[in-house]
């Protein structure tokens, strides 16, 4: 039987979201129905609302979520009703060429629920990143559910579902930060802060936070940054080089995703260093770099999808780090809100006043 629940819907481009009643089916084969306990308000949700991802309106927003499995469909064995799970948007297939090569974090055939959630009039909804968790219940592919220790509060654990994992993984997995490395992170929102936290846990000795907002730079120091650069007052490349003995950082993470910030990342790295793009650009953005500089500087230029994570491996490990007091996920939770507050949370996000507003149900 179908379920009628409250949910946050974006009906049209750039219009305020609305709180509506939607219809969520019971799970079919390979699917899971999840009671959502908490869901972070991520900038990607705003991208969807603004039409920056695609134009498949109406969208069911929300994707950084944790909750409990209520029911599963036929053939599901990895999770069961009652399991506490973090939702992920990269449910790997296990069969594509990336999976067969032992690199499932590059899976080319990730999957979502087959059945569609709908408005009351039957209009199909497009769930953000295949999840749609600004809702009391959501329907996902069972592979999008990752069991974690239920001792972790949902408001903190759910953030692993996108921003924290993306930033942490950009530094640790994609960038390969190691003990003694120097790291610069451009952009100190939720993703950048997670990259800083990841670099600290990996043993980086110099961690440089770069942002235009002094408030964010102060927060970055609390997360583990050893130095800060105010990009509104200093030349970012020159400052990063100065703070690294004139050489540039071993790893530079661009958590903004603009041509100008990626150029900074490219030139602020050491000659054999790595530049990582994890901030999400918009479709019209283009990058120009002298090809001779790409050739002559060596090192690596990488993009980081979801922090090159494997949810089944990484979510439980990061929750364990949190429970051990080594990864402060609570520090990312700036405020707890209700479903009716999501539109206001978008405004707060734009103003840079929060790391994450988290919807708690």
TrEMBL record:
Domain Enoyl reductase (ER) span(s) in chain numbering: 17-361
Enzyme nomenclature, EC number: 1.1.1.306
Superkingdom field: Bacteria
The protein, known as: S-(Hydroxymethyl)mycothiol dehydrogenase
Keywords (A to Z) from UniProt: Metal-binding, Oxidoreductase, Zinc
Similarity comment: family membership: Belongs to the zinc-containing alcohol dehydrogenase family.
Listed GO MF terms: mycothiol-dependent formaldehyde dehydrogenase activity
A Pfam family annotated for this UniProt entry: ADH_zinc_N
Cofactor: Zn(2+)
CDD domains the record matches: Zn_ADH_class_III
Species whose genome carries this gene: Streptantibioticus rubrisoli
UniProt-listed PROSITE patterns: ADH_ZINC
